[in-house]
Design goal:
It is built from 16 helices and three strands. The protein is mainly α. It folds into three domains: 49 residues, Ubiquitin-like (UB roll) (Roll); 98 residues, Up-down Bundle (Receptor-associated Protein); 236 residues, Receptor-associated Protein, CATH 1.20.81.30. It has a three-stranded antiparallel β-sheet with strand order 2-1-3, with helices on one face. Strand 1 and strand 2 form a beta hairpin. Helix 8 packs parallel to helix 16. The termini are far apart.
């Protein structure tokens, strides 16, 4: 992307000069013709005028857009469409004001395809930057003529998703920082402080207590193998990442997370809440339940939960109600199953699923709050106990030596008095 300088004639015959942003000479000519300008001369940008940020996007070096950019785009597009602005003008407005380079290019690609005669659904699908849920909801909105309403629902869905992620991230940030700092402190004690005490103890020549010897052995291990531990930990981490990227590894890791203390309940309820809200949004948009279940299953990150809901989809395909297979999932609450059953019987399944999603999200907030209250003092007690153990182990021989000296001096005084 760069600024092409041009000289040309307008439709009224007036001469015009200026510059235009384009990725190539061909595109610059196309954009000028669209503006009613017949160029006679176009000068490409020099190397110094090339947009470095856009070049990085084109080469795949720039950071892709995230949930925040997608939420903002969705909400603003809904407002513009609701105001009666044509879709091409909407995309041009959003393109001009977008700051994220990757997303800016994505909007431009979408606009180019819409201008070429494609629907917004086809254009979004062609960019490969929007997930299946987003694209299918847009398709449903276009078909029903309620695209602005669907986009508003999408924005609300993305906002809820972002809020949930921030809650979980916030709950884990402080404990992670405390653990990292505590680990560095313990490593510093073992590597630099304990060896100083070892020299003092060796000079006294007294018997070393078992707990002190254990700390000394651990200190020797840290001193001898720290340089090997760091690359070893990095290699182990990379192997673990590669393992959970495999189908079997991801399934095993997800099953472990579901059974993990504290985190298991959070993982399950967060996944169920996300599933319920996604399915509700799809059904309210008029998407058939089978297609909606397919899309919902794709959005679930936990492979074990996705497998369980695949069985639910299969049962629904065979003509069964959705509540029957849901009731067979052991971690799916019975009360929630009954709520969905009522919604299915009354024909308000989408509204009931939204209530279910709210229930799960409230429970997730409660779990996060309780987990934070429990984890923080637990970490402090464990790390404080480990540091205290090191200090006690080091000072214990000194205290024992001082006590022994007092005993010896007392014995010498008694002998002197007898004499």
């Amino acid at each position: 992307m760069g600024k092409f300088k041009y000289t040309g004639m307008r439709e009224d015959g007036k001469r015009i000069e200026g510059d235009i942003d384009a990725e190539s000479l061909k595109e610059a000519k196309k954009l000028l013709r669209r503006q009613g300008i017949r160029p006679s001369r176009i000068i490409p940008p020099s190397a110094l005028e090339i947009d470095l940020g856009q070049w990085m996007v084109d080469k795949g070096l720039a950071k892709p857009f995230g949930l925040v950019e997608l939420m903002r785009f969705t909400r603003q597009l809904a407002i513009l469409i609701n105001a009666g602005v044509p879709i091409m003008e909407c995309l041009e407005i959003l393109y001009k004001q977008e700051k994220n380079l990757f997303f800016k290019k994505t909007i431009k690609n979408v606009a180019s395809q819409v201008e070429g005669g494609k629907s917004l659904f086809d254009a979004l699908t062609g960019t490969k930057a929007f997930d299946k849920l987003y694209c299918n909801l847009v398709k449903a909105g276009e078909s029903a003529g309620i695209l602005d309403g669907i986009l508003n629902k999408l924005a609300e869905f993305l906002e809820k998703q972002d809020k949930l992620r921030k809650q979980v991230k916030g709950a884990l940030t402080y404990p992670t920082i405390v653990v990292c700092i505590g680990t560095l402190v313990i490593w510093g004690l073992m590597t630099f402080v304990v060896p100083q005490f070892v020299g003092i103890l060796q000079e006294t020549g007294q018997e070393i207590p078992a707990v002190t010897q254990l700390v000394i052995d651990i200190s020797n291990f840290f001193q001898n193998y720290t340089l090997l531990m760091v690359p070893g930990l990095v290699a182990g981490f990379m192997l673990f990442i590669n393992f959970i990227r495999t189908k079997e590894g991801k399934l095993a890791w997800d099953r472990f997370l579901m059974k993990a203390p504290l985190f298991g309940e959070l993982v399950i309820k967060a996944s169920l809440g996300s599933f319920s809200r996604t399915l509700s949004t799809m059904l309210s948009a008029g998407v058939p339940i089978i297609d909606a279940l397919d899309i919902c299953i794709e959005t679930i990150d936990n492979q074990q939960i996705a497998r369980d809901f695949t069985a639910v989809r299969k049962a629904v395909t065979e003509g069964k109600s959705i509540t029957e297979p849901l009731g067979r999932i052991r971690y799916f609450p019975e009360l929630v199953v009954q709520m969905i059953k009522v919604g299915e019987a009354t024909g308000n399944l989408d509204a009931m699923l939204m209530k279910v999603a709210n229930v799960f999200e409230e429970e997730v907030e409660e779990v996060v709050a309780n987990m934070t209250k429990l984890i923080e003092p637990l970490i402090l007690v464990v790390l404080g106990g480990m540091i205290a153990l090191v200090l006690v182990a080091m000072y214990l021989p000194i205290f024992m030596s001082a006590g022994g000296s007092d005993d010896d001096s007392g014995g010498n005084k008694a002998e002197a008095s007898d004499n």
